[in-house]
Amino acid sequence: MGKVYYVSKNIGLGLLVLVISALVTIIALSIAYDKERAKNQGQPGHRASDGSSTSPPFTTPFTPKEPWDYYRLPKSLIPESYQVTLWPQLQPNADGMYVFTGYSSVIFRCVKETDLIIIHSKKLNFTTVLGNHIILMGLGGVTPPAIRRTWLVERTEYLVVQLRWKLTVGASYKLHSKFTGELADDLQGFYRSEYTDNGVKKVLATSQMQATFARKAFPCFDEPAMKATFNVTLIHDRGTVALSNSKEKDYSDTVKDGVPVRVTTFEPTKTMSTYLLAFLVSEFISIQSSQNHLLIRIWAQRKAIADGQGEYALNVTGPILQFYGKYYNVSYPLSKSDQVALPDFNSGAMENWGLVMYRETGLLYDPTLSSTGNKERIVTIISHELAHMWFGNLVTLQWWNDLWLNEGFASYVEYLGADYAEPTWNMKDYILLYDMQRAFAVDALASSHPLSRKEEEVNEPSEINEMFNTISYSKGAAVLRMLSEFLTEPVFAKGISSYLNTFAFNNTVYEDLWNHLQKVVDKTPGLHVPYSVHEIMNRWTLQMGFPVVTIDTQTGTVSQKHFLLDPSSVVERPSPFNYTWFIPIKWMKNGLDQQQYWLLKKTDVHSSMRVSGEGWVLANTNVSGYFRVNYDANNWARLLSLLNTDHKALPVMNRAQIIDDAFNLARAQIISTTLALKTTKYLSKERDYIPWQSALKNLGYYILMFERTEVYGPLQAYLKKQIKPLFEYFKTITSDWTKVPAGHSDQYNQIDAIGIACGVGVEGCRELIQGWYKQWMENPNQNPIHPNLKSTVYCKAIAFGGAEEWDFAWRMFENASLASEASKLRSAMACTKIPWLLNRYLEYTLDPAKIRKQDATSTIQYIAGNVIGLPLAWNFVRERWSYISQQYGRGLFAFHNLVNGITMRFSTEFELQELKEFKEHHHAGFGSATLAMEQAIEKTTANIKWVTENKAEVLKWFTEETT
Ligand SMILES: *[C@@H]1O[C@H](CO)[C@@H](O)[C@H](O)[C@H]1NC(C)=O
Ligand SMILES: *[C@@H]1O[C@H](CO)[C@@H](O)[C@H](O)[C@H]1NC(C)=O
Ligand SMILES: *[C@@H]1O[C@H](CO)[C@@H](O)[C@H](O)[C@H]1NC(C)=O
Ligand SMILES: *[C@@H]1O[C@H](CO)[C@@H](O)[C@H](O)[C@H]1NC(C)=O
Ligand SMILES: [Zn+2]
Fold first, then answer.
1. Residues 554-579: pLDDT tens digits?
2. 46 has a pLDDT exceeding 60
3. Which domain of life does the protein's organism represent (predicted)?
4. Active site residue 376
5. Distance between terminal CA atoms of the chain?
6. Average of per-residue pLDDT across 841-846
7. Is any ligand 1 atom within 6 A of the Cβ of residue 105?
8. Distance from the CA of 909 to the center of ligand 1, in angstroms?
9. Ligand that comes closest to the CA of residue 85
10. Which residue, 407, 431, 588, 614, shows the most beta carbons closer than 10 Å to its own?
11. Which ligand is closest to the CA of 172, given by its number?
12. Where does residue 752 rank: exposed (0-12), middle (13-18), buried (19+ CB within 10 A)?
């Protein structure tokens, strides 16, 4: 899936600005965006969505005995082809329930003797066909065994058919069933979504199968390696359009059960996994184009398409598909590409083969209403999902334990595809902010885990869901980028192409990719790689964490050490490689690129890294490697001096990373806090976005820790001093805020400049913002605020204002016709400083008529991000925990994020105690957020320690810098 969900990457970053000004919510980076990452909500098996879980509680061990007790399918039957007919009813039945009915047949081959047919099925009621629930036929003249008994196993989500005698090895059979299911609004499997069009309620049926919900739509062998072809038929109201993975072949109008309907059939799909299936029945309309005979369509609500909101997505899809076709050297495997914007969708997007689903904010762009950030998110998320059309869909990892390769890969190449579509944006640099620094943050904790897990460690749906996390997406992306950098991009791309060509329509394990890359390496003369791809990559994928490389430029000594944010933390997980890595180090000396150096042991001497006098060394050029860098004091001093005199001598990504490394090395007590703070002094000269953003994110931690203390005054004064030149710069280049800057990153930086300047009281900022908002309130149909600045301006105007400003925002939120506009208002409303408004807003989150279910937990997070809202949100969540966890707890990311969002400021013993008590009281209730709770406790403990040890030094430094 695509990562995101709540807040897009860039909006998440924008929010940092808000925090800095002490007004809102910054949802710490680990939470913020995520393209897909939200995905899969479910922990079936543990907390059924209706709360009627019959499965044993999380803590009760269950010992499997029978074949149907295991979460993995037996290997005796292999599906080949399905015929699936589904009829979703978009009006409630007599009981007020929305249902769908279905018929399905599956042809499978018996490859191992068995008298059991075990097939996934979840929450389906089977109805009788000719007096039988299930019909089994033999193909090619084979006599099928008679059925002895059939039953459902709720825990493992199976339909079990026990036969009177055994199936014949080598023979094929066809299993037929008829069933009904609820078309619930639970965002899983085949589900319904609602919206209003000109005041008229509309209902649509759509699907989300990944990871384990295809079984909720029809009985199927629901594992990614059980690939088959699917002949899909949808029965639907005549006024609706039906879509599925392949092209519609045919339709006919008829009457079924007295209802006039249309029957749409689709071409058989290519051989594919069940989790990539998709169905849609809706009144959506589309715009389309064609590229080399490939039909490309963008679907959404009538109004959105009529307003042209699909145009940007349509414009970039063709080029992105073209880019991947070339990059992979495999043409697009399907005959059409549909992309759909859904009003209710749990994750950011889902790469269903040929029918990709998005949240509306991930696909719809309005040139007059959307910001640069919205546009960037759309192009990157499309690029991510389309990357999967080959990598993931055409060639699929055998099992979910290797999810990191699928998601890490798409999270890396999405930048290449987006760069191709928007060549002036420097998209490739943004991986530093959006993925690498995010991965560094999580992977520096003792509670991290290796990218790769063993197949047998991942079985039940909740374990599968746990794989959809920052490590899989962002560390996966960082490590693959490093691999591509040291192999060089042409070699990497050739290896990918060879892998895709070899395993098309098949399944793989991650070692298959290493093998194909190795083959290309072996055939590339002059490419120096000290060990095999396997040996090098094992150290990055089989052990958790990453190294800090220390270079002593006096002696030329280079050494590595496992980097842990809290040096006192105990790593309990042994590593097969003792936490050492094979590290490719690109570096420069005195401004000149040097030959890449490989650090292959704990300590080594590389004498060309010795410098003296004014000479300096910079390692990890363009942050191509996934590691941090530390230097001897002299080299640090020379780099700082260079930043202050000629910062452009260093690549922009490195300027950003020097700050991030320094702050984190200081957190880990490897260098002094003062040295870290000094890396921000040159910022008064910096005009580039990425270094600024990196600094603001790191200072954001100081704000979270000190906002409620006496350090905050001098800290604010320092920021004011540093930001003022940037604010003035943008004031000038925008002719007094009447224009937006032309450059993509300038547009972001303008947002930072205004956001921070206002928060720290730069003259003229508050008036500017209040003036804009007031103008809008006076004339709601004429919003004078530039889309780029909306998040910041709304938030601050609401913070500066009272109930009137808030209520106006709420009205605008309710009337917003563009999803991203609504989401900006939704986060801004959390900025108020008035407690009763915040409490009322918290209550709204539990009322789906006010805040959509998909947005509930992120809204609570926004409120928790506000220094005044934090205690209110924390109380609210504790009081309503059972309700919240039952309603919203099924989403791993939602949960994770909620816990992270609430605890990110925690830095006192009292808060730690509260957190521990909370955990004690609900020890069984966290499910897949258990890890998030542990991380929260670890982080709070570290915060307490850090504040105690650093407060005096930080106060002294900021005070000295501002007097
Ligand atoms: C699906 O259609 C194909 C081609 O028309 C056919 O060969 C196959 O048997 C069908 N599958 C099922 C389960 O009916
Ligand atoms: C399935 O059967 C159960 C138990 O009889 C019932 O509660 C549920 O409503 C049925 N679902 C549908 C979609 O008919
Ligand atoms: C889409 O492309 C067309 C043709 O190049 C262009 O005129 C239009 O402005 C583009 N639309 C968007 C939203 O970028
Ligand atoms: C899929 O890959 C496996 C293992 O590499 C191979 O044995 C099998 O023949 C392949 N199947 C197809 C349909 O290509
Ligand atoms: Zn993905």
1. 999 999 999 998 888 888 889 999 99
2. no
3. Eukaryota
4. no
5. 51
6. 94
7. yes
8. 65
9. 1
10. 407
11. 1
12. buried
Best substitution site from 312, 370, 371, 425 to test ligand 3's pocket, by max atoms within 8 Å of Cβ? 312
Is residue 315 within 6 Å of ligand 3 at its C-beta? yes
- Could you read off the pLDDT of 128-148 as tens digits, one per residue? 766 667 899 999 999 999 999
**Atom 4 in ligand 2: residue holding the nearest Cα:** 125
State how far the Cα of 384 lies from the Cα of 411, in Å rounded to an integer. Answer: 6
- Per-residue pLDDT, 250: 95
User: For residue 676, what are the contacts with CB-CB under 8 A and spacing of at least 6?
Assistant: 659, 662, 663, 665, 666, 698
Task: Check the CA dihedral 764-769-774-779 and report its sign.
Answer: positive
Structural domains for the chain: 6-30+680-962 (1.25.50.20), 40-282 (2.60.40.1730), 403-634 (2.60.40.1910)
Q: What is the reported pLDDT for 26?
A: 28
- Encode 915-927: b = buried (16+ Cβ within 10 Å), e = exposed: beebbeeeeebbb
Catalytically annotated residue among 385, 460, 466, 686: 385
Q: Is 914 annotated as a binding residue?
A: no
106 Cα nearest atom in ligand 1: 13
Percent of the chain with pLDDT over 90: 76
311 lines ligand 3 (CB under 6 A): yes
Is 917 annotated for ligand binding?
A: no
Asked if residue 38 lies in contact with residue 1, where contact means CB atoms within 8 angstroms, the answer is yes
Q: Judge whether 422 is annotated as a binding position.
A: no
Chain-wide mean pLDDT for the chain?
Answer: 90
Q: Which of 298, 311, 320 to mutate to test the pocket of ligand 3 (most atoms within 8 A of CB)?
A: 311
> 42 falls in which pLDDT band (50, 70, 90)?
very low
Q: Which ligand is nearest to the CA of 503?
A: 4
Residue 569, pLDDT score: 80
